[in-house]
Amino acid sequence: MTVPTIALNNQTTIPQLGFGVFQVPPAQTADTVTKAFEAGYRHIDTAQMYQNEQEVGEAIKASTIPREELYVTSKLNNGYHRPDDARRAFDETLQKLGLEQLDLFLIHWPLPTLYDGDFVSTWQTLAEFVADGRARSIGVSNFQPAHLDRIVAETGVVPAVNQIEVHPYFTNEDARAASIRHGIEVEAWSPIAQGKVLDDEVIGKIAASHGKTPSQVTLRWHIERGDIVFPKSMHLERMRENFDIFDFSLTPGEVSAISALDQGESGRTGPNPDTFDYVPA
Hints:
The protein contains ten helices and ten strands. By secondary structure, it is an alpha/beta fold.
């Protein structure tokens, strides 16, 4: 089954469905990514703070999939925002993944209360990686509207994507709208609200009417809204289930009914980017 691609603002494309490795233990990552390849995934989303880039690289090296058919994303560790640190960290990411070029590299969190509030110089540093050809695209993650406005105004460099928390209980409309206004594609992390949608009555009824699972219907909701998603599972059967979302569609009414489940800020499952200040020890 062919996964749709989304055109980014720099004339590159990205598969709309990918596979995430957040919280996949390093010792199990290579096997998990290999299973994801078997299920059909070609877009892998990792991060320096996930501590499993090396193992993602092992799975890529062991596969017979041509490099040009893979799309690999990683993200900058919160402890490496200063330009020289970011440069060293990016070098290490390429080394661990065993790649000469990364498809997409993101600032993982804006951390506006740290580094004297300077995430602009960090963003300028990421632009160097595109200029020297070692990154095809760069973007941000968890950036709020004001953060996006600032980096675009101060650098003129528009992120290709903004990876933010989005799911039926937290549709994050302000950040989505700001991203779209700048021509930035939205990537949705925690797309099924850490499994909370599986017991939702509204989603369950829609799923039953299509002969699909609540997870499949929720992922389809994202797809129809234009989100890029990368669900995570360590089980091949569930990986295949999450991949099997392109043989049906939701009606506009069904999309609206799922969107109406939004709980605003109280529906957020992760940290608030305006105050999040975690730096790994």
